[in-house]
Specification:
Elements lengths: L1 E4 L1 H4 L5 E3 L13 H4 L6 E4 L11 E5 L1 E5 L10 E2 L16 H4 L10 H28 L5 H11 L6 H20 L28 H5 L8
Antiparallel strand pairs: 1-2, 1-6, 3-4, 4-5
Helix pairs in contact: 4-5
Length: 220
């Protein structure tokens, strides 16, 4: 048997027990499995999946023995005690660690979504107004040219510089957070959503002992 750590997979720091199959626990030399010509060792496993809490398989040698998660060492685990001799079942993109790895997504704040919505509405309004002006002028063979002209004249309705000013404001706001003497040691890891701190209604914290050393003080 051996103890392993899976904090790289599920974030749990407690050690977990892993044992060998009952058929191989009494073997003095693992080379017997290879040198035995009369019996072939076979392992039948389930297809690759995301679940790291379960495993179904069969170990065949002289007889069949079911395999469970207690017999598995997922990729990314660390052996804490003892030595382990095993057989590789999943490799590459079939490992649980790779399958549970998600692509990082770009974070959008509520202010960004609101500005995008307003910009779309303003563009739609300017396009509608440009079309109305073309109709009032009279639709002829070159009406689309006048539509583009009116659309360019009304383009000031869409605040293109607002996005740049907002990003600069977020950078300044992030700098002020890091320089705040009331919250020393603060690090802003994302400068795209610092204004979301003012919209927080509920704060849910997990692993408070790990993050706060069992001390958490709320200041209003």
């Amino acid at each position: 048997y051996s103890f392993i750590r899976t904090d790289q997979l599920d974030g749990e720091t407690d050690w977990k027990l892993r044992i060998a199959t009952p058929m191989t626990q009494s073997l003095e030399d693992i080379s017997i499995l290879i040198s035995d010509k009369s019996q072939t060792v076979k392992i039948h496993s389930e297809p690759p999946c995301l679940n790291i809490q379960e495993f179904n398989g069969v170990f065949s040698w002289k007889s069949e023995v079911p395999l469970s998660v207690e017999n598995m060492l997922w990729s990314g685990t660390v052996i804490a005690t003892g030595e382990v001799i095993g057989c590789v079942i999943y490799t590459g993109t079939d490992t649980r660690m790779v399958l549970n790895t998600s692509k990082p997504r770009h974070k959008f704040g509520l202010v960004d979504k609101e500005i995008n919505t307003f910009a779309k509405l303003l563009f739609l309004g300017s396009a509608t107004l440009a079309l109305v002006l073309v109709i009032l002028k009279g639709v002829d063979g070159l009406w689309y040219r006048y539509f583009v002209r009116f659309l360019l004249l009304l383009s000031y309705m869409v605040p293109l510089s607002l996005r740049v000013n907002l990003d600069l404001g977020k950078l300044v706001y992030s700098w002020f957070i890091q320089q705040d003497k009331d919250i020393p040691g603060s690090v802003v890891r994302s400068s795209t959503i610092p204004e979301e701190l003012g919209r927080i209604g509920y704060l849910l914290a997990d692993k408070t002992g790990t993050l706060t050393q069992n001390v958490m003080v709320f200041k209003r």
